[in-house]
Amino acid sequence: MMQKFFDLERIDAKKRSGGERIKDFNEIYEVFSTNKASEQSARCIQCGDPYCHNKCPLHNLIPQWLKSTANKDLELAFALSNEPSPFPEVLGKICPHDRLCEGDCTLNDGHGAITIGSVETFITEEGFKKGFKPQFATQMSDKKVAIIGAGPAGLSAATFLLRKGIKVEIFDKQAKAGGLLTYGIPGFKLDKSVIERRVDFLKEAGAVFHQECEVGKDVNFDELQTNFDAVFMGLGATQGRKATFTGADAKEAYLAMEFLTNIQKKLFGEAYDESIDVKDKRVVVVGGGDTAMDCVRTSLREKARSVNCLYRRDADNMPGSKKEYINAREEGVDFDFYISPKEIVLDDNGNITGIKCVKTKLGEPDASGRQRVEEIEGSEECITADVVIFALGFDPVKYEFLAENGIELDKWDGVVVNENYETSKEGVYAGGDCHRGADLVVTAALDGREAAKAIATKLLAD
Questions:
Q1: Potential cystine with 70: which of 3, 42, 306, 447 (Cβ 3.0-4.6 Å)?
Q2: pLDDT-derived band of residue 340, with 50, 70 and 90 as boundaries?
Q3: What's this model's pTM, rounded to 2 decimal places?
Q4: Where are the alpha helices (DSSP H) in 269-342?
């Protein structure tokens, strides 16, 4: 059944046309049919030392579930896919597969990588249709863990703790669980019902969610330490970086997550800031990662007059997923490469009228081997704009309760943990972006899983 890469070419999941999909926030990709998933899986050559498995942070059992899918054994594929991963149907949609599993696929050398992400999504979505459910412990111990943050790391920790028979309660400041998955990643990449379904499975398994409950305000950190056997912090890294040049504090200069979260709250019907509005405006997004792509594509759906993305290197050097860049171009985003913003221009009323930039070129490699960006003298220009959105990365938030409880931070304000994900405070664990700095959802899922295993080992041995 396998190794059909000579007979079958790589085929990506179908997507709606660019002009059609910018009319709404619905997902743009279709899920594979059973036959298509089987055919694409059958292209796998079943490497003895699978690079795809090694490159995946979760070390997903990719060749094994590809073989099961090729053989149309959905039940086995579902079990294999869900064993190491807290939410494979989510990661199948949003992981930058071209930089991870698919990027290291042996078939990239002339044949085209296996469509691992699309098959991963198919397995769990089709499994849910067939009535399959994720497995949790049937008997619970008397141990319980408090989880701060219902984002990827928190949901992952909850999943693997519940599998070990440990009770969990999640404390989260937003109205809905999911963190970045719910409020940061737009619906055209990840429909919100996908997250709600996973949350419902956790609730069925006994998880208790406390929404709109911020630690340090609505509940004291001391209470969690007193009332629970351990605490896991999945706080994320949501502090956006704003440029420091003149005009960056203009009223219509926004941080990426501020913009994306506000739009999502509007779509949910929650309270939102009505002043953040891009309709009929000329939007300029600064940055080249996946968050920048989320901002430009959201702006189009919010009926911006025009959308430009500025990046100081070229398309090949963009840090995000190539498919997201392609999707943005298909939808009508204009890209200006080799350009670096220097100042936001304001009129007498403080309104943005443009953004001054200078052209760049790539010079000699730096210590990491990446070519340095060099500015070209005398190449200044001004790009017309009404709104500027900064997608320049994120830093951990320095919550007061961390210092108050003697939890050690590194020089970037990330939470310091040991090999078991335990912080300097005994019984308090952390993972995801609050520890790593802004990273991928899949690495947050990894941290939640590994922290849960360490917590379970300690608690169940007592």
A1: 42
A2: very high
A3: 0.95
A4: 290-301, 322-331
